[in-house]
Amino acid sequence: MSKKPVLNNLASDNTSCACPGVMDAVIAANSGIASSYGDDSCSLRLDAIFTDIFETEVRVFPVVSGTAANALALSALTPSFGKVFCHEMSHINTDECAAPEFFTGGAKLVPIASEDGKINPDSLNTVIRGTGVVHSAQPAAVSIAQSCEVGAVYRLDEISALGATAHDHGLSLHMDGARFANALVALDASPAEMTWKAGVDVLSFGGTKNGCLAAEAVIFFKPELVKSFPFLHKRSGQLISKMRFISAQLEAYVGNDLWLRNARHANAMAARLSTGLGSIAGVQLAYPTQSNEIFVHLDRLVIAQLNAAGFNVTEGELDGTAPPRFVTAWNTETAEIDQLLAAIAAAAG
After folding, report:
1. DSSP code of residue 188
2. Does a structural domain hold residue 89?
């Protein structure tokens, strides 16, 4: 009996392995001795490396997960009595087990609804209220994901408009960049254009979904916002004793445009899958494909047949109302895409 295929890479980009360039850097770092807790030479280079990438002076704090990056970044921007405005589908609101609330000491998340997965300035304006009122939690920060949870990408003008709105109200703008590279290559923009030039104050810079083993970073574009963050970094358990292994990943990831090549490949594979899905009768994309995530409306019987064939396809939310998601990665192969398309076409037919 032949072994059934398992759709590992297309279930999530978290299921992909680390890319060779990153693994080579980890192996190279695993030689000799090095100072601990971020005082090694590799960790000390990160500020300069990312300053060059973002074309402005930055402070970089490596962490090992996106949840840690988001929660710690927001804790630097938001007091315990503050509010964080975010999209209702944002990871900080739905997928991080109240970590932002915990690390901020109890700040309130204010979810904003939209049909395209993105916050718009008008909706944001309507919910920012209570400033200076002692009975109200105080507006403190706006958080957006780039690319967002439905795979949509904020245009540069959209980020600038949200940044201006946030700053007009005295709030900071945080960007959850778990798939930062995928959005960047989709826009064909520079890292500076997509962040601080558009009003972003703090970035959760993602690497794990795009080829790293476990490497993210909190990046400050305004030194004055760092304040006591080194203590928060330590207190959270993210100041790793052998930080060289996290920093080596980040250095290799952004070196020689590895991160951009990985993201371009993932996006190209998503486009191939999206185009193929669009040609199958009875199959409808739920959102435009703009990065490396594809959401598609599939009949439950089709999903059942795909899973019976060994593909790992979920219906989304527990009530089955969310469309299934497919995610391409740095190492997704065309054969995987074509195998899935053939299976969906057969099931749908």
Report:
1. T
2. yes
